[in-house]
Sequence to fold (389 residues):
Amino acid sequence: MPTAAVRGGNFSGASICDPLTITTPGSVCTPFANGIIPQGRIDPLAVSLLQHVPLATSSTAQQNLTAIEQQIKDVDQFSLRLDHRFDSGDQLFARVSTFDANEIQPFGSSSLQETLVPGFGRTLNTRARNVAVSHTRLVGSRLLNELRFGWMKVSGGQTSQNRGVDFASEVGLQGVTSDPRDVGYPQISTRGQYSVFGDPTTFTYRDNLHFEIFDSVLLDRGAHRVKFGGYFFHLRFKPEQPDNARGSFTYTGQFTGNAFADFLLGYPTTAVSGIGRGDENGRTNWLHLFAQDDWRMRSNLTVNVGLRYEYNQHMRAVDNRLSSVDFETPGGRYVIASDENGAINPDGAALLPLIPLPYVTSAEAGWDRGLLSPSLVRLAPRTGFALSL
Fold:
């Protein structure tokens, strides 16, 4: 961590260029006197952010911070299972499961661009609910039916422990999010001169739900064992990712010769800020059908013939918040998801003048709302044999 002296602009013994003395390209830079940046030149935003950055705990230049924080992890799981036999040919299985996990990681885990510096950790929570039911019934001695149903809902994700701290409004930092769900501290990198500090740049939330139904019938007709059935799957896909919403700033020493001095003066090499939350409210449905016959032609020869059909609907947003670039059209074009009448999401209207390519709606392009060409005929035939010599 930077020492208290460096935070105040005291780089005694180092040559710190004053960028304002470079008046023309190639002109010689004049260093600050004695390597000290005047207080009036230090960016107030930098001063405000450093008030939330812990000081070094030793006088060494490197590895000078020792911190102890409490990591808390609570996990609650519950499962209830029922097996019931109505009679010798009629059985039921059912299970209900819940899973709740809440974790406070004061230093993060380094997997989501966390800074690992105290004060900028994250919380992680997951909430899952699952139901599974299976019913098997034997009708007579020749027909067996198996019906399965599954349902699952999963929500949760990562949040900053500083969520709700509107640092940008307090200090006048512009160009970053004002969404109360995502406000916090920006992330500052000095390219290895000091540890990265500030809030993580990436968080992912989800609120997904899916259910599936499977039914299979086995029919014994002597020399023929016929099996047929179907599968239906429905998914509600709702991820959110406010990427770089609080801002991510990188300082390299390009202007002063010292990365941290660039930070104090407010001269980033790169500044990244995410627009919006990167959310989606998608839906998709799958339908699979199959039929097959194991035909015992002779005592030592069985032939198998089957056919499978699959329809996998492309993911589509219920509010038409998808878009894509079509490179197959000469010159390229932008395709925006719309309803059958060509109406796009109202939120996209303000962005249309900013698109550098010609744009059309999915209705005009002849595409579906998922912005992919549908594949309605997906057939998978199969055949084989078993021969005993």
Notes: The mean pLDDT is 92. The chain is about 5% helix and 40% strand. The longest strand covers residues 122-139. The first helix runs from residue 4 to 7.
